[in-house]
Write a structure and sequence with these properties.
about 120 residues; mainly alpha; about 50% helix; about 0% strand; elongated
Length: about 120
């Protein structure tokens, strides 16, 4: 239940971040003011939108990061407790008792004497 709620929160926060970034003026927007686009900043005032939108973006970014860490922690904790197989049944992961020998485990071989 908590995992689902955090996932839904993650989706809404990411949509909010995208919307806030798209609403902000870019660095090159000031160049358009010389060509008659000076009224574009009049909705929020000359400086009002920049601080409000930037602050909101920073808050949502912090929520996004903390929520991402919480989702990662819950995801790894849930995977350790139960692991499901392909068809949904619980599968117990057991390490092999005797792993297969590798080439580095083989004893050295003495060279054969000439015939």
């Amino acid at each position: 239940m908590l995992l689902t709620a955090l996932t839904i929160l993650q989706v809404f926060v990411s949509i909010a971040i995208v919307a806030l970034v798209l609403l902000q003026r870019g660095r090159g927007a000031d160049a358009g003011a010389g060509f008659g686009a000076g009224a574009s900043g009049s909705v929020f005032g000359a400086r009002g939108a920049t601080t409000g939108l930037s602050r909101s973006t920073a808050i949502f970014a912090a929520i996004f990061m903390l929520n991402s860490l919480a989702l990662a922690w819950l995801g790894t904790r849930n995977n350790v407790e139960t692991s499901e197989g392909l068809l949904g049944e619980s599968v117990e992961q057991v390490a092999p008792a005797n792993p297969a020998p590798t080439l580095s485990d083989a004893p050295p071989v003495a060279p054969e004497q000439g015939q």
